[in-house]
Amino acid sequence: MNIEPMGLRESKKQETRQLISDHATRLFIENGFESTTIAEIAAAARVAKKTVTNYFARKEDLAFDQQDEFVASLSRTVAGRAEGESALTALRREFLDGVERCDPVMGFSGEVFARMIADSPTLLARLRDLHDLREDALAGVLAAETGAAPDDITPRAVAAQLGGAHRILFQHILDLTLDGRSNERIAETVTVAAHRVFGLLEGSLADYAVK
C-alpha cells in the first residue's frame, strides 16, 4: 500500500486552504462580501461546497484567514518577552517592529481589502469579535505570568488597556489605508501615534508583568 507521507498531506491541505481563501477574497472584492455565496466560492476553487466549510467554519473566516495569528499575537508577545521586559514594553516593541515591516496582522491590508472590510457590516462585527478574543487571550497570559488570583481583576483591566491601544492603532491603520495612503506613509504616521498611545500607559503599566 502506498501511504502518502504526513508532510505531503499537510502541504496539500495548506495548498487547498490557500486556494479556497484566494478565490474567496477575489470574489468578495469583486462582488462584495455579503453578496458572495459559499457555493460560488466552491465553484471558483473547483472544490465541493462541503470542502469549503470543512476548512472554514464561517464565511467570515475566508476573509480573515490570518485570524488565529491575530488573536494569539499579543499573548504570544507577552509570553515571549525578554528578561527584565514588562508587558507594555514588549508589546510596544513588537508593534513598532510590525509597523516597520508593514505586517498584515497589524492592519496593513491594502486599500482594496480594507474597503472590502469597511463595506461589510458582517466583517466589521467579526473584526470586533477578533479584537475581543485577542484581549481575552492576553488577559489569560497576564494572569498566568503574574500569578494573579482567580478573583483578581487586574490582568483583565490591564489587558483591556493594552488591547484597547492596539485596537485604536489598528483602526488608525485601516482609516489611513482607506484614505489611499501608501504603506510607507502609514508606517510613518502610525509610528508617531504608537509612541503617543503607548506613552499614555507608561505611568500605570511600566512596571507591570516584568519578567
TrEMBL record:
<dbReference type="Pfam" id="PF00440">
    <property type="entry name" value="TetR_N"/>
</dbReference>
<dbReference type="InterPro" id="IPR041347">
    <property type="entry name" value="MftR_C"/>
</dbReference>
<protein>
    <submittedName>
        <fullName>TetR/AcrR family transcriptional regulator</fullName>
    </submittedName>
</protein>
<keyword id="KW-0238">DNA-binding</keyword>
<dbReference type="InterPro" id="IPR001647">
    <property type="entry name" value="HTH_TetR"/>
</dbReference>
<keyword id="KW-0804">Transcription</keyword>
<dbReference type="InterPro" id="IPR050109">
    <property type="entry name" value="HTH-type_TetR-like_transc_reg"/>
</dbReference>
<feature type="DNA-binding region" description="H-T-H motif">
    <location>
        <begin position="37"/>
        <end position="56"/>
    </location>
</feature>
<feature type="domain" description="HTH tetR-type">
    <location>
        <begin position="14"/>
        <end position="74"/>
    </location>
</feature>
<dbReference type="Pfam" id="PF17754">
    <property type="entry name" value="TetR_C_14"/>
</dbReference>
<keyword id="KW-0805">Transcription regulation</keyword>
<dbReference type="InterPro" id="IPR009057">
    <property type="entry name" value="Homeodomain-like_sf"/>
</dbReference>
